[in-house]
Amino acid sequence: MADTIFGATECRRVTQPIGELLNRTNAIVPGASRGTNRTLGQRPMNIREIAKRARVSTATVSRTINRHPSVQPQLAKRVWRVVEELGYFPNTQARALVSGRSRIFGLIVSEITNPFFPEIVRVFEETALQNNYEILVTSTVHDPERMKTSVRRMLEHRVEGVAVMTFGMEESLLDDLKLRNVPLVFVDVGPPRPRVSNIRIDYLHGIRQAVQHLAALRHEKIAFITGPLTLKSALARKDAFVRSMSEIGLAGDPELIVEGNHTLEGGEEAFRKLLNRRLRPTAILCSNDMTAIGVMRKCYSEKIVVPRDLSVIGFDNVHLSQYIIPPLTTIEMSQTELGRLAFQALLHDVQREIPNPKGTEYVLKTSFVLRDSTAMNPGKGRS
Fold first, then answer.
1. Most buried residue, 83, 152, 183, 326, by most Cβ within 10 Å?
2. DSSP letters for 234-273
3. Model confidence at 92, in pLDDT bands (50, 70, 90)?
4. Domains plus CATH for the chain?
5. 208 sits in which H/E element
């Protein structure tokens, strides 16, 4: 439906007077609703009819519907009263072709079923509504081909900007999108280019706090389960762990570092590998909360009690982490703040007349969240 509307209207844009197109822009899409919302007698419901009933000009109706601040409050109130009485809904797709602005932002996430992403989507959408924007959301499920399809959908819908919250596969998008001068937001991998914003995650801050916490509990054999090492974000978390261990004089033993895949099943499998190795950890730090929950599930089946026998720390602080038993100690990467930053970065770029030559960088700091899944190293006693 969207493709048909854009294609057909774009042709008319060349051949019809702008006044007529404006009138069509603000007409109801046929069949979109019932009763007076569709027609008034034999006349289509459009801004001319709204203007007549509200006793204002069509320009005032148009500015009111578009929430332009120049409209006097009493006139705007009159227009909105008529709009509400008649159940009027403007054709936003056609109107976008006239104004040159779709007021739509795209949001691409890795996997909507991962508890980390719904909160980002919720905050991004909530912020969009507050700023009179709509959003188009798509999930890649870690499939490069689906990523390309997602980008094509965004461009077909004339999005004003795209936030790519996938933590991987982003570089293949740049050539497609940069040529169209579409503002972009990335996490960690945004290159220094105009119209590109990068949200850099300070992984080290939170991971350092977690490692120091485990050291204070007298743990020395601390394992780390990474994410897929094809992702720059997973490599950054691993590097932050190795550095934090070095800072407290504990060399991270390669035998205690196992690659996972950021899933529950991956956490179980990675912990199974650790159990079969010569060194047995007394504490495990995981690259995300889903991995940590998978580790705790494996502990249950192996009769390993958390935190008495093994301390476990996650990463992300998803909402679910505080409801498992025991509640998960974790490192917070605020999804609320990430969603808000992503939207604001796009909005600032759209409003900026001259883009920053090297793009814009934002920093999101991680922090340690103490709950009940960590305790004193059982081999060191309790003091």
1. 183
2. HHHHHHHHHHHHHHTT----GGGEEE--SSHHHHHHHHHH
3. low
4. 2-98 (1.10.260.40), 102-202+335-365 (3.40.50.2300), 203-333+369-380 (3.40.50.2300)
5. helix 203-216
